[in-house]
Amino acid sequence: MIKKILPGLLSLLCLTFFSLEALSAQVKPDITLKGVITGSENNSYVEAPFTVPDGIVSITVTFHYTGKEQHTALDLGLFDPERFRGWSGGNKDHFTVSTTSATPSYLPGPLPAGQWKLIIGVPNIRETVTSNYEANIFFTREKSTPTSFADAPLRDGPAWYRGDLHIHTAHSDGSCQSQSGKKVPCPVFLTAETASARGLDFIAVTDHNTDSHYDALRELQPYFDKLLFIPGREITTFWGHANLFGPTDFVDFRVGTTVPSAQMLFEEAARMHAILSINHPNAPTGQVCMGCGWTPKEAVDPHLIQSIEAVNGGAEEGQYSGISFWEKYLNQGYRITAIGGSDNHNAPAPAGSRSAIGSPTTVIYADNLSVPAILDGIRKGHVFIDLSATRDRRFEIAAEDGNQKGIMGDALPAPAGSTVQISAHVVACSGNKLRFLLDGQPVASLDSNISQADQGISLTLPSDGKKHWLRPDVVSPEGKLILLGNPIYLNYTEDKK
Ligand SMILES: [Zn+2]
Ligand SMILES: [Zn+2]
C-alpha cells in the first residue's frame, strides 16, 4: 500500500525523485492512525484525533480502508485545533495542507500545534460489515526545496525542455481585460492556458514577494499535466529584484529592515537549495520602476550567484540588456548560468509582442520534466535562451578534448597544445550565423553560416591551456541575437558552487 501512494508523496514531502525502493526505506509516517468502523456507525461521523507538534510546515495525510467490495464508503475531512480545514469526502485518498498551499478541498494557512482531528464520515457501511482504516500522517518540519505541485515528473527522460521563468499574475501586478473589457487582476489560469497554447513545457509564476499564488498552482497542476509549474517568486527589494525558484515557504524579502543585506538573501537561498537569480540587472531604477536595477549597498559574494536573467522580455538587447552584467562575472572567472524571462504582466498578450509569455524562452537540458531536474539543469548551465520564442529552435554545443567531453555549462580540461573539437547542432536557424565569444571576444575562425534547417557543424580551437569561457550565439545576418548559449568553461578546475 505504501508503494502505491509513494509517487504522490515525492512532491508532497518535498523530496527529490528517488526510486520507490529508496523512498520506502526513507519515508516513514510520523503517525499512523488505525481503527475499525462497524455497521452500527453507518451515517455518522467518527473522529480520529492526532497531535501536531510545534514547527511543522506541512502535513500530508494518506487514507485507506477495507470493505470497498462490500460497498463500504468512508469520507474524510480535517479540523485543526481552532477551525475547520476542509472536506474531501470520498474523492481523495491523500492530501496536503501547508502554510502556503493545500490540495483542493483543503485550506492552507498556519499549522498550529495541538490536537487535530480527521473526521471520518460514514455514508455507507452494511450492518454486518466491518472496515479497517489506516491514516498515515507525514510532517515536514523544515523549510525545504524544491517543492513541487506535481506528484511525479510530467515527462520522463532527458530532453531540452522549453519554458518561461518570469511571469506575473493577479497575485501581484499582472492585469488583463475582463469579459466586459475592464482592466482587472489577471487570473493564474490564463497564464497557464497561454503558456500551454505556446507549447511551453514549464513556467514559473513569479509574483512580487508574495506566496499567495502557490495555492492556485497546486489546484491547476493536475489539469495542466503537460506544463510544469516551478515554484517561484520575485524577491523585490529597493536595490534589486531576484527570482527565487524552488521553495514555497515564506522568505523574508525586507532587505535593509529585517534582512541586513542582499548577501543574506543569497545565503538563505543556498541553505534552502533554491536558486536565486538576479533579474533585469541593468534596468534603470527610478520612479517608474523602483529598485529595478541591481544596486545592492554591499556587493554579494559572486560564488552565491547561480543564475542571472541575461535576457528580460522588456530589454532583450541594448543598454538595458543583462548580458553585459552577466559577462562581467564570467570575465572574473565565475560560472553563472544565464537564463531568460518574459516578465509578462498580461497573460493574453499576443505571441511576438514585447514580454509575451514565452518571449524569450529559456530552454533547459534536464533529466526529466520535474522541478528538481529543471533546477538542476539551471545549476549546471545546460541552458540556452531562444529570444525569438520559437517552438522548435535547437542549439546543442558539445566540446571534446582527448577523452573529456562537455556541453554548455560544463567545464572541460584542455591542456596547452591540444585541440578542442567543437560540434554544433543547430535546428531551425537557416540563414543565420553561428558565432563564438572567447572571454567575451569574437573568434572569427569559428564563425559559421547556417544554411540547413537541421545542421551539424564541426569546428576546432587550439588550446593554450589557460582558463577561458567559450560561449556560442546564433545571430541574424544583421547581427541581431537569436539564440544565446551558456559557455563551455575551459580549464576551470574549481567546482561550481
Ligand atoms: Zn522585476
Ligand atoms: Zn517581474
TrEMBL record:
Q: Which domain of life is it from?
A: Bacteria
Listed transmembrane segments: none
UniProt keyword Lipoprotein present? no
Which UniProt key words apply to this protein?
Answer: Hydrolase, Signal
Keyword match Signal: yes
Q: Name one GO molecular function term.
A: 5'-3' DNA exonuclease activity
Tell me which positions the record assigns to the signal sequence.
1-24
Can you name this protein? CehA/McbA family metallohydrolase
